[in-house]
Write a structure and sequence with these properties.
Blueprint lengths: L9 E6 L9 E6 L3 E6 L9 H9 L13 H8 L5 H4 L11 H10 L13 H21 L39 E5 L2 E5 L7
Antiparallel strand pairs: 1-3, 2-3, 4-5
Helix pairs in contact: 4-5
């Protein structure tokens, strides 16, 4: 059996009897002695070993892998005329980068989402990959996505409104330069960026 929890999935378990179901319960396994609950995972499917292998084979490198390696993604990106904002959402290029990480990594790297992938230098890609890995690992550790650096937000516990630089902040002032954050649709998802900080 293969289980991919994503960012929000969690497994809890204990001795029987199982407690009453609550929250985003996706699947429960029980027997006379034990119970185990899967909660919060975005998708929950039962697939064969061959089906699971086929899914994994078509994915790009996983930033959450034990030894993450962005070289395969770089080979695709460095030759591509597609916009970097599209490439980051393509799961065959990189596995797991969703809409929040796309917007936030591009902002943190001061890169326009409209630049072609082939315009990135190897050094720029390396810095972006390192940032993706760090942010996604931090997201798993926290159980939520926080992309702002400590110096760019209020002290103390990170409030929801302080967690991101540009994501879902259209029309609000950029935290760095004050320009209103822009929004449009790219790769069928809302894209957010700062026209000043991310302009070359």
């Amino acid at each position: 059996m293969h289980v991919h929890l994503g960012l929000y999935g969690k497994v809890s378990e204990g001795s029987a009897p199982a407690p009453a179901p609550w929250g985003a319960l996706r699947m429960r396994w029980t027997n006379e002695d034990w119970w185990s609950d899967l909660r919060g995972a975005t998708a929950c499917e039962v697939v064969t070993h061959d089906e699971a292998a086929a899914i994994v084979a078509r994915l790009g490198p996983d930033p959450l892998a034990r030894r993450p390696d962005g070289a395969r993604a770089w080979r695709r990106i460095s030759r591509s005329r597609a916009q970097i904002g599209v490439l980051l959402m393509d799961q065959s290029v990189i596995a797991g980068v969703g809409n929040v990480y796309r917007a936030e990594v591009l902002f943190r790297q001061r890169r326009s989402p409209f630049d072609e992938g082939r315009t990135l230098s190897a050094q720029e890609w390396h810095q972006m990959w390192v940032d993706i890995v760090a942010l996604m690992r931090d997201g798993v550790r926290r159980g939520r996505i926080v992309t702002t650096r400590a110096e760019d937000r209020r002290r103390g516990r990170v409030r929801g409104e302080d967690a991101h630089y540009v994501y879902r902040r259209a029309g609000l002032a950029c935290r760095i330069c004050g320009t209103p954050v822009a929004s449009s649709v790219m790769a069928a998802r809302n894209l957010f960026w700062c026209p000043t900080c991310q302009c070359r």
